[in-house]
Write a structure and sequence with these properties.
Number of helices: 5
Radius of gyration: 16 Å
CATH architecture: 3-Layer(aba) Sandwich
Order of helices and strands: EHEEEHHEEEHH
Structural class: alpha/beta
CATH class: Alpha Beta
Bound molecules: zinc ion
Helix content: 40-55%
Distance between the termini: 28 Å
Shape: globular
CATH topology: Collagenase (Catalytic Domain)
Strand order of the largest sheet: 1-2-4-3
Strand content: 15-25%
Length: about 180
């Protein structure tokens, strides 16, 4: 289930964002893991830079304007929180999917992390290290090099444009057919 919390987004934009998430997860999650999606809850919280976000200890700043937080399993359901900055919504673009383009790019990235945690590819240990596909990583989040060079980030960055483009093509095809 996908839920969106935002002070500014209307019904149409929320629908489009939910459609993008469903589309992206369908591509990201391998066939033999798809059943797990039914037991996964994703809450997407839109927030403003520097402003407090309900239930979050971090605020959106110049360094982190979108993130994915895995809350673990509650009552048999895997819980995720995605935080996205409202500054990614463009007010100048005319088309709905262009107004939300940056939101989709960042969602594609964060949903890739959802897939990684959901399927168990990525696992965070309490001591700050993590496991990626059976291999233990000592990971220093302060180091940009570690960040950009880690296999899970390479996958997440690598998904951004492709998922947006595929979604856009699918959407335009549907709209032309109407
Ligand atoms: Zn990332």
């Amino acid at each position: 289930m996908i839920r969106i919390t935002s002070d500014t987004l209307g019904v149409h934009d929320r629908d489009l964002i939910r459609r993008f998430c469903t589309f992206a997860l369908d591509i990201l999650v391998p066939q033999d893991k798809k059943h797990q999606l039914k037991k996964t809850d994703i809450r997407i919280k839109f927030g403003r830079p520097g402003k407090e976000i309900k239930g979050e200890t971090s605020v959106i700043g110049p360094k982190g304007r979108a993130w994915c937080r895995y809350e673990g399993t509650v009552n048999g359901r895997k819980k995720f929180v995605l935080v996205i900055s409202e500054s990614y919504i463009s007010s100048r673009a005319k088309k709905d999917y262009m107004r939300l383009k940056k939101v989709f790019l960042y969602l594609a990235h964060e949903l890739t992390h959802v897939k990684q945690y959901m399927t168990g590819e990525l696992y965070d240990y309490a001591d700050g290290t993590c496991r990626w596909r059976k291999e233990r990583y000592e990971y220093d989040p302060e180091s940009n090099r570690d960040y950009y060079d880690s296999p899970w980030e390479i996958e997440a960055f690598g998904r951004e444009w492709g998922l947006f483009k595929m979604f856009k093509l699918q959407l335009l095809k549907e709209r032309r057919a109407k």
